[in-house]
Amino acid sequence: MREIVFDTETTGLNPATGDRLVEIGCIEIINRVETGNSFHCYFNPERFMPAEAEAVHGLSDRFLSDKPLFASQALALLEFIGDAPLVAHNATFDFGFLNAELSAAGHEPICLTRMVDTLAIARKAHPGAKHSLDALCSRYGIDRSHRVKHGALLDAQLLAQLYVELTGGRQIGLGLKVDTLVATSELIVATQIRTAPAVFRAPRPHMASKEELERHHAFIQGLTSALWLEDAVAS
């Protein structure tokens, strides 16, 4: 199964009030394993960058001034995404900006049925706990020591690892269902062997015959210095 894990950076919180997408990072995973394929791009938002937003991701007006417009990269992005489900943390936010940019560029928005929200998954798995990307990475032992500021590609890479953990780990795509069926079949066979009815066997005779007793007595008479004879004399 092919899925795309992605993250965005923006100029603010609401595309409806003029905020724009300035970075997107996408990671391809197939059967819960990263393939190494990715899509990453910065965009010129054609507006100034608020100081509070720049403090989060570090993307300045000067840095973004020579970057392409979203519209010029939309087809390449859509080709990379294909028809795969799209995984994001607080996915409503990322989908809102992505669809706003697509619509402004003359493309159809991405259907929300393709949205997979790891925030919702985390809230269900760990009610009452902290559900930020940082907190969840700490919970699952995912190394984020190289994360100084938010970055779309880096956060998507961390989220891809987190998504795998939240949905059962890499084993989910390693065919354990087949192994379980094999193990179950082996257990049934073993149980059948253990519980098979025993075959009746006639009891073997265990008493020595008269001839055997006479031969044994003759053998004993030929022994010298027998310990049991010494004990008999001593008593």
From TrEMBL:
GO terms for biological process: DNA replication proofreading. It holds the Pfam family RNase_T. A divalent metal cation binds at D7, E9, D155. The keyword Transferase applies. Keywords: DNA replication, DNA-directed DNA polymerase, Exonuclease, Hydrolase, Magnesium, Manganese, Metal-binding, Nuclease, Nucleotidyltransferase, Transferase. Binds 2 divalent metal cations. Magnesium or manganese. Coiled coil: none annotated. Substrate binds at D7, E9, E52, H57, D155. GO terms for cellular component: cytosol. It comes from the Bacteria. Its EC number is 2.7.7.7. Residues 2-172 form the Exonuclease domain. GO terms for molecular function: 3'-5' exonuclease activity; DNA binding; DNA-directed DNA polymerase activity; metal ion binding. InterPro entries: DnaQ (IPR006054), DnaQ_proteo (IPR006309), Ribonucl_H (IPR013520), RNaseH-like_sf (IPR012337), RNaseH_sf (IPR036397). It catalyses: DNA(n) + a 2'-deoxyribonucleoside 5'-triphosphate = DNA(n+1) + diphosphate. Its cofactor is Mg(2+); Mn(2+). The active site is at H150 (proton acceptor). DNA polymerase III contains a core (composed of alpha, epsilon and theta chains) that associates with a tau subunit. This core dimerizes to form the POLIII' complex. PolIII' associates with the gamma complex (composed of gamma, delta, delta', psi and chi chains) and with the beta chain to form the complete DNA polymerase III complex. NCBIfam families: dnaq (TIGR00573), dnaQ_proteo (TIGR01406), PRK05711.1 (NF004316). DNA polymerase III is a complex, multichain enzyme responsible for most of the replicative synthesis in bacteria. The epsilon subunit contain the editing function and is a proofreading 3'-5' exonuclease. PANTHER family: DNA POLYMERASE III SUBUNIT EPSILON. This is DNA polymerase III subunit epsilon.
